């Protein structure tokens, strides 16, 4: 299939924001702050800023609101729609660059074949034991704290329902029975949002990441997906994804902004 339209990709990317169960949201017409549950490694996030006012004035209001959450810092996402001068305003407040990623998309269906990885088994997270494995891999790669079975059991039930309904779920990759990778997909308005793809460092370079990518894209296409969308770190996943046909539609950055 052909290349996607920039405006279409940008709109789908802007519509994608995270709000895990138990989050607190402070949203205005100009910004969106989310206080995630404690188990997340970056519990306070500024997910977007959209304003015609001077960036420094808007950021001053955001900082004042963020301080009310009582945390030492906020993770700030500079999205494609960020106003002019926003990065300069952040740096003026002492923010430090944490990460840079490409906004990547590919029309579906796409010819992304799974490599032959000896000993690899891919399972959907539909049971508690798989949820435990996914949680262990996720914490190892992304940080945060381990969840209890009381927290994991309802997640497994919810994923079991969403996988069956064709709206997505979480895959866990096992090599010779050992959980080594996770990768999520969510279908919203025919857009397959590919999230949380990670492989334990000792098992990278064997094709596991690509195998889970192929499984998610096949699932998405079978359930009506017309676009695969993700954000890929420029030092890790983005080069892999672009070799597989994904196109970068712009770069986004995350900064750590101290509040004390």
Automatic annotation (TrEMBL):
* Domain N-acetyltransferase: start-end pairs: 120-260
Matching Pfam families: Acetyltransf_1
> Which protein is depicted?
Acetyltransferase (GNAT) family protein
């Amino acid at each position: 299939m052909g290349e996607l339209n920039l405006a279409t990709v940008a709109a789908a990317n802007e519509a994608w924001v995270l709000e895990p169960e138990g989050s607190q949201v402070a949203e205005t017409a100009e910004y969106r702050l989310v206080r995630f549950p404690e188990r997340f490694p970056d519990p306070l996030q500024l997910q977007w800023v959209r304003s015609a006012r001077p960036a420094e004035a808007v950021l001053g209001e955001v900082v004042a609101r963020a301080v009310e959450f009582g945390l030492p810092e906020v993770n700030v996402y500079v999205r494609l729609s960020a106003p002019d001068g926003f990065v300069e305003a952040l740096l003026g407040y002492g923010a430090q660059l944490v990460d840079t990623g490409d906004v990547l998309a590919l029309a579906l269906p796409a010819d992304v074949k799974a490599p032959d990885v000896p000993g690899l088994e891919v399972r959907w997270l539909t049971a508690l034991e798989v949820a435990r494995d996914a949680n262990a891999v996720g914490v190892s790669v992304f940080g945060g704290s381990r969840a209890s079975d009381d927290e994991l059991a309802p997640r497994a039930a919810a994923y079991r329902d969403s996988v069956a309904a064709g709206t997505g779920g979480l895959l866990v990759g096992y090599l010779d029975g050992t959980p080594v990778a996770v990768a999520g997909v969510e279908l919203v308005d025919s857009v397959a949002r590919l999230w949380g793809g990670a492989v334990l460092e000792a098992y990278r370079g064997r094709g596991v990441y690509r195998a889970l990518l192929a499984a998610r894209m096949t699932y998405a296409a079978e359930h009506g997906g017309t676009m695969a969308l993700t954000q890929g770190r420029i030092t890790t996943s983005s080069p892999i994804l672009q070799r597989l046909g994904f196109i970068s539609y712009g770069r986004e950055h995350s900064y750590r902004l101290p509040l004390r």
